[in-house]
Write a structure and sequence with these properties.
4 copies of one chain form a homotetramer. Chain A has helices spanning 29-40, 97-114, 143-151, 168-178, 197-211, 218-242, 247-250; strands at 4-8, 18-22, 44-51, 57-60, 66-68, 71-76, 85-90, 118-126, 136-140, 165-166, 182-190. Helix content of chain A is 37%, strand content 25%. In chain A, the strands form 2 sheets. The first copy, chain A, has an 8-stranded mixed beta sheet with strand order 1-3-6-7-2-8-11-9, sandwiched between helices. In chain A, strands 4-5 form a two-stranded antiparallel ribbon. The first copy, chain A, is of the alpha/beta class and 253 residues long. In chain A, helix 1 crosses helix 5 (197-211), helix 2 packs across helix 4 and helix 5 runs antiparallel to helix 6 (218-242). The first copy, chain A, has a single domain (4-243), classed as 3-Layer(aba) Sandwich (Rossmann fold). The longest helix of chain A is centred in the last third of the chain and has 25 residues, at 218-242. Chain A binds chain B through residues 1, 5, 7, 50, 52-60, 62-69, 95, and chain B through 94, 97-98, 100-102, 104-105, 138-143, 145-146, 149, 156, 158-161, 164-168, 170-171, 173-175, 177-178, 185.
Amino acid sequence: MDDVIVTFVEEPELNSPILIEGLPGVGNVGKLAAEHLIDELKAQKFADIFSKHFPPQVLVNDDGTIKLVNNEMFYVKGKGKSPDIVFLVGDYQGLTPEGQYNLTDTVIAWCLSVGVTRIYTLGGYGLGKMVKEPKVMGATTTSELVEEMKEAGVSFKKGEPGSGIVGASGLLLGLGRLVGIEGVCLMGETSGYFVDPKSAQAVLTVLTNILGVKIDFAELESKAEQVEKLTSQIKEMEQSLQDPPSDDLQYIG
Amino acid sequence: MDDVIVTFVEEPELNSPILIEGLPGVGNVGKLAAEHLIDELKAQKFADIFSKHFPPQVLVNDDGTIKLVNNEMFYVKGKGKSPDIVFLVGDYQGLTPEGQYNLTDTVIAWCLSVGVTRIYTLGGYGLGKMVKEPKVMGATTTSELVEEMKEAGVSFKKGEPGSGIVGASGLLLGLGRLVGIEGVCLMGETSGYFVDPKSAQAVLTVLTNILGVKIDFAELESKAEQVEKLTSQIKEMEQSLQDPPSDDLQYIG
Amino acid sequence: MDDVIVTFVEEPELNSPILIEGLPGVGNVGKLAAEHLIDELKAQKFADIFSKHFPPQVLVNDDGTIKLVNNEMFYVKGKGKSPDIVFLVGDYQGLTPEGQYNLTDTVIAWCLSVGVTRIYTLGGYGLGKMVKEPKVMGATTTSELVEEMKEAGVSFKKGEPGSGIVGASGLLLGLGRLVGIEGVCLMGETSGYFVDPKSAQAVLTVLTNILGVKIDFAELESKAEQVEKLTSQIKEMEQSLQDPPSDDLQYIG
Amino acid sequence: MDDVIVTFVEEPELNSPILIEGLPGVGNVGKLAAEHLIDELKAQKFADIFSKHFPPQVLVNDDGTIKLVNNEMFYVKGKGKSPDIVFLVGDYQGLTPEGQYNLTDTVIAWCLSVGVTRIYTLGGYGLGKMVKEPKVMGATTTSELVEEMKEAGVSFKKGEPGSGIVGASGLLLGLGRLVGIEGVCLMGETSGYFVDPKSAQAVLTVLTNILGVKIDFAELESKAEQVEKLTSQIKEMEQSLQDPPSDDLQYIG
């Protein structure tokens, strides 16, 4: 069995496509953003990626059938000025460093074979504290792209992220550059404590502007409200536990 | 040395056999069930599977001879309407995710070579609490099989098992489906705290009905009684430790 | 770089040799025994085994030169009725299960190539308590060998060792049997808390009888005395810490 | 994707060069020393080493562009009697034992191909306590080199370092010797608690004498002062926390 197996449901004709990656990570920002974009653009699934670098596990669908753990690729043909777009999403990243390299290498080889012109990797940038208005931080393969992204509203701050970019979002840029594919990582600021649809929306606002596509954010906004409600409840519970007992209980004399 | 080595004691002629897997797992339900069925049907061992994905270990038999850690395959020819059956059992599963994939891939390749038509994987479904009357949960490779299993008394519940199916019981279905072999996982409800012969019996009751074979459950029932006795004793001990000291000890004045 | 590299200092002519393995393990019994036998029989080193399954480390000799971590093979030609003997010793075993299999497989392949007729693996059998007169437990590849070993004073006890034999001492027998080389594991009883030269002596007493060679045990006995002195001191220290303060300190009035 | 990939920015003509390694390790002594020497000698980068044995990670440069985690090689042509020098530096060593062997093996193969005549590996020797005047300890591939190094002021002490030399600094000597390349490890004494520029300076003082090159130490000395200031502050803070409260606070009556 090969380390990584790509099986194609369909082999779409793609015209200088771009790749958008959104795999699980900090606040699941990249995953939420990419999956929302897939839904809104009605992108079609065309490939499965199976690998012994994923957990040895099947998931069970609602109808009782199973699904081998995988990554999936979707595509949508560009309309007007917007380019053909390919998506890389899934439930897992490779379990080991070597697995991460092998999986990314397989994707990059495929990108070369279909002429992918640019890679956008989406992720979260964990701040360790609640964020009211998440900014979108960037990192790119070339300094020209830094300028282009600044104009699109992406923030660049010297020395951030200090720990670099770990996993597929980093490796796709790193290995892509080695073979001449340019790339951008867009990171939505997030606490890192919760799944963060608001941060995903911030990332998508920037990205859709760049791509020249229009989408609806209602679904993400509704998810963001749910998360907000949940976190408020947790905060209240924590506060009530820390609060001093009420007056009448303290009343003694 | 190959990662996985299959050595054949015998190469039986098999007619569209089904495969039943029962390797160690939650409550050892699958292992108990498969081994009981092997005993009752007097199935014959025909192959050993050795692998560097198993522990580097030999076990010592009662007579002082050693046995390299392995998985084993047994077979029994069908009688009347019941099909030829092949069993996969053993003391260990692969130690790493990659090992799990390699081992399962080897078994699936063999299944293809002898024309296995369906795979049943047996396991336990841990509830984290004691179970009086264990039900048998299912997951399958196709929705037609879901219906077939429901008619055979198998339960399907949306969103369960939530964590999917990990290990050989999951992978055999997942990798099997990729090459067109249909499969069913039968999971007996179990606490997950003890080896659970009662849950194994529940699984076998469903499975033997499906297969049209009749077996005796006396051995499993006797094992179940032993486990029940043991767990009752443990419960009593725990209770007596928690009970307040008896009245006469508290009586002072 | 190959996973395992064997470099030969010399390629001795060997006549149906036996292999004796003594790598690090419980109480270092096997290592002590094999190294003592090498010294006493003035065996010659003829091969180094290097491997990426060992730690990435060099040791520093007393003269300031370095030595890449390895396993080593020695040989001695038989005299009279005693056979040609090859030894496998070293500072490390493979770090991973896969590494253990690869290393052992390399040794077994070499054994086949020179016609090794029998393998003795030496180790300790940890009892978790101090042992006055360590017995030598056995496990073998055939029931004929069990009988032969019993006559030589080796103990066999049903169900022991319950956890089997882990590492090179087990795998050499397990993989050896797959290719038709018979083998015996001799395990000296030991507490498992200390390096145990006394247990090594017990193993060697049995082994040298079987091999028909005579050796001096003075060196091992002197090591055993050192260990005994050390453990007595530790016991005394522990006891004095637990003892109640002496009388005059308690005397108050 | 190969396990290790070397990409050349330039293929310099090298005349019997020596290799100097300074990768991360105890007190980062080797890394600091090698990088300082690269700066002072204005060595040129000529190669990148990428590998799936490094973390799956990109670092972000100050200008917002990314850099795939790697090791790098620099060179400087010798002047007068000093030899051509090649440097091996980087942010990471291989993550696994196998990775360490593979990476070092790749470097050694390259050393053979360009005729490297000697390897100096630089590192720290952790003493677990503060060191006023760090000595430079040595280990070499031959006893002739021990003598040569002693004359150059390197210390050799029987039984040190007791745990051997772990990682690239050890393996380059160990694997180098197998193919006939001689080598020296120079270890600066260091506490092991801090990055230690002073220890790096001690190592470089010895090394530059041997190589017959002259460099400025101002930069390292300034770093050493910064570290010293920092550690003094930490000491003071610790002391003030342990000190009894001052007299006037204790004064009551």
